Amino acid sequence: MSFKLQLHLHLPTHVLQTQHYFLSSNLFPFSHSSPCSFSISLSSHTTTPYCFPPSSTTVDSDMTTDEPPVRMVAIVGHGAVSPLNSASWEQVMLHTAKRLKWVDEGYELLVFTDKCIQSNEPLQRELLKADILVIVAVTNKESVNWIKISSKTIENVICFDSSLDLKNKLGGYEIHNEVRGSIFGKILGSSELLDKTKDSYEVVQTVTEAWDRRSSDDIRFCLLLLINAYIRPVPVLKNLRAKGFSTLNCMLKNCGRQVLNCLLDPNCRKALQCLNKCSPVDQVCNYRCIASYESANLEAFSLCVLQKNNCLELEAEVPTKPYVPPMVEFRGQNLSHEIAEDLFVGWLGSLQWSWRVVAGQNPAYDQFPCQYQLFYRGKAKGSFWYEPVFQVKTFEGQMVWRRRKYRVKRGKVYGTFYFSVLDNGVISNEFWTIVDVANDLSWGLFHYHGAAKAAGQSYTGAVLVSPDGAFPNERERTKIVTALEKCEIKEWELFFVDNCSCIDPPLGTPEGSSFHSVVQINDPNWMNV
């Protein structure tokens, strides 16, 4: 995955850019389909209203603290369906609670449905301790009235997709809802109150925009942003504060020529203008800008400003959570480095590509159509390479092909690898795991953690792949579900790649490349794909 060039230099302290986190999901059933059409039939899960807080669950996180826990309570409409592939809001928020623990073990989110007000003692007890109350899809009149009375002492109350009778508070100050029910509205009160809460406008706008993007990453980001703004600093958001004139001074002092060349280059200039029109937390918009207008001058600009001189004073580390174990055997043989590399190589040699991507979790990357993967052994001894090829629809409406090149090194554990790439001037380092691959190579699941340190971005993700880009046959469903669970993946988090109209992809490998060393590809059913 790639970095997002962040050029918004004048944001208020509270307004922070989201980190780039990739995949996590829980699947199906999906019907087998062509790459151009698929149907999703999500399992209907019957859930008991959560009216009793669970015992404390320990989840390893990248950040722990001796500070008191941040206590959050979510009340969701009973049976309310989210726009995330029709998962219930209860499912979505329960999964969000787990994903918050990956950031900091001290972030506690308890989820109740509004049906719990009928036996309200546990819910009432938790509300008395809550730092933040999140209300999602609550429209029942009785529930609304109960929440209005029971939440009076909570300093931070945030409502999403709920009754307009429910009011939002940030830092103890009330905020009106807009007609559409988002939390971005006009702050009531005197000019003095407006002065005291001026930063809330930026926080509210950023949270609303993120929520409206309807992804699991953005939902978690909304809560992290609120914690950071009103409870205590969130370390993973520290990169995203405005740097102001120190950044400009660094750019002009160290990268004057690159800045000038970029401004004189129409394509590079368009990229910068495009980026500054995007919300700083809209990964889809930002990466589309970079992919639409990439050029040699944009790469030189980023290489100097971000990678070499770190003018934005950013940093990021490759995440370690969630831990995803690699597969341990293939076709009855214990996994080895050679077998694992062959599984990446996949169908290359029999087909013109190793794999085609079926789905992933991150909309910033999975928005791009026609994704091909090329894994191959290089001419130099021990070298191994990965080249993704994909289409981008530019802001001018043109479809263009893009290609990246990653160096791949073996990890200590069989089935794990270290990837690195220079993408538009910024180095990204990633840790990949082969989670599972079918014996007939009809599908595979690869997980990764990554970071673009100079861009201040870290992310996690995974890709589900097959030879033709279509979802695998239904008979493989159980195995795929198991593999996804190893990645902490939920079905409603997946974004499907559009694999239609993939005309003349720029495939091919360098002269002297080699493919398999151990695994044999001998399934004739895929030879005519």
TrEMBL record:
Q: What is its EC number?
A: 1.23.5.1
Q: Which GO terms describe its biological process?
A: xanthophyll cycle
InterPro entries reported for this sequence: Calycin, VDE, VDE_dom
User: Which Pfam families does UniProt cross-reference here?
Assistant: VDE (PF07137)
GO: which molecular function terms?
oxidoreductase activity; violaxanthin de-epoxidase activity
Q: Which residues cross the membrane?
A: none
Q: What class of enzyme is it?
A: oxidoreductase
Domain VDE lipocalin positions: 249-499
**Record key words, sorted:** Oxidoreductase
The cross-references to PANTHER family, in alphabetical order and at most eight, read: OS01G0716400 PROTEIN (PTHR33970:SF2), VIOLAXANTHIN DE-EPOXIDASE, CHLOROPLASTIC-RELATED (PTHR33970)
What is the protein name for this chain? Putative violaxanthin de-epoxidase
What gene name is given for the protein in this entry?
11427448
